[in-house]
Write a structure and sequence with these properties.
globular; 2 strands; mainly alpha; single chain; 306 residues; two-stranded antiparallel ribbon
């Protein structure tokens, strides 16, 4: 009975405080300080550092890196600004790192490989280069034989594969946005080989980009575009060929939402709830800054396990 009485008094006190506040007035709630991380065991902090290196760079930290980052995080009491600096270091620092060239180089190489794994079954750059060489030899033969239609087709196929290879450094340098990298993964020899014929191509596009099956209406419009090269509408936009179709898909809000979902699934092994998705969508749809999504997830207590 005494506990209920105390609860009633606290509730009445809060109601009184809020009722007495004017618009725009700051409310200071006592005993609502930022959490202390003094009791977090060192092994938990080390696990956080290890996990971040693996997720962002694809490797564990060296002993000196682990000790440095542990000391830095501890010096700032594991608070969010310290975590933010740590994650930003791995994503964007350009200082020389033996074996990686730099953290930034290693980060974008890792991201490129993850995108290839998602879209083209992790085909290696060596395989891409070999197929590019086949097209180059065919184009040379066509030029010698005066077969200019085939020559142009082979040059076009070469350029598609070169665009895939170039997407790694062009994305790293900010020359293309993340959705353009995904467009290139859809528009090349290997994606067509993996998903042969128009039916499989359409199904794969929806599954790989949106993690779902297409609707019947979406399939009918898509098939008209891909198979027959006739005008069709998808996501309220019109296209008449494969490239135009791909551009609509990767510029859609649903693609951007799928990228938020991908970040959560990769980093937290779960889907985001609607509030978490909404928190990122407006900015990400405009700025295409996938690194910011990763950063905001990786500074949370949930990711760090603090």
């Amino acid at each position: 009975m005494f506990s209920r009485f105390k609860f009633g008094l606290c509730l009445l006190w809060l109601v009184t405080i809020f009722a007495g506040c004017k618009d725009g007035q700051t409310i200071i709630v006592p005993d609502n300080n930022s959490p202390s991380y003094d009791g977090v065991p060192t092994i938990i902090v080390e696990n956080y550092i290890n996990r971040a290196y693996i997720d962002l760079l694809g490797r564990e930290p060296l002993d000196e890196e682990l000790n440095r980052d542990l000391a830095s995080l501890r010096a700032d009491e594991l608070k969010e600004p310290a975590r933010r600096n740590f994650i930003s270091l791995l994503q964007s620092n350009e200082d020389f790192v033996e074996g990686d060239s730099s953290y930034k180089h290693a980060y974008y190489q890792r991201f490129y490989e993850l995108v290839k794994a998602r879209m083209v079954e992790g085909v290696s750059d060596g395989e891409i280069g070999s197929q590019l060489g086949i097209y180059r030899f065919a184009a040379l033969s066509d030029s010698l034989n005066g077969n200019w239609v085939s020559y142009e087709r082979n040059l076009n196929n070469m350029q598609k594969l070169q665009n895939v290879l170039d997407s790694r450094w062009q994305y790293r340098e900010g020359l293309i946005p993340v959705n353009e990298m995904f467009a290139r993964m859809l528009y090349n020899y290997f994606y067509d080989e993996i998903n042969m014929n128009s039916i499989n191509f359409i199904r794969a596009c929806f599954n790989d980009l949106f993690f779902r099956y297409h609707t019947l209406a979406e399939f009918d419009q898509s098939f008209q575009i891909i198979e027959y090269g006739q005008p069709g509408q998808i996501f309220g936009e019109s296209a008449v060929d494969k490239l135009g179709y791909i551009e609509i898909l990767v510029n859609s809000r649903e693609f951007h939402e799928s990228m938020v979902r991908w970040a959560y699934k990769n980093l937290l092994a779960r889907e985001p709830n609607s509030a978490e998705t909404d928190a990122f969508m407006d900015d990400f749809y405009k700025d295409k800054d996938y690194q910011k999504i990763q950063l905001e997830i990786m500074v949370t207590d949930e990711y760090a396990n603090f």
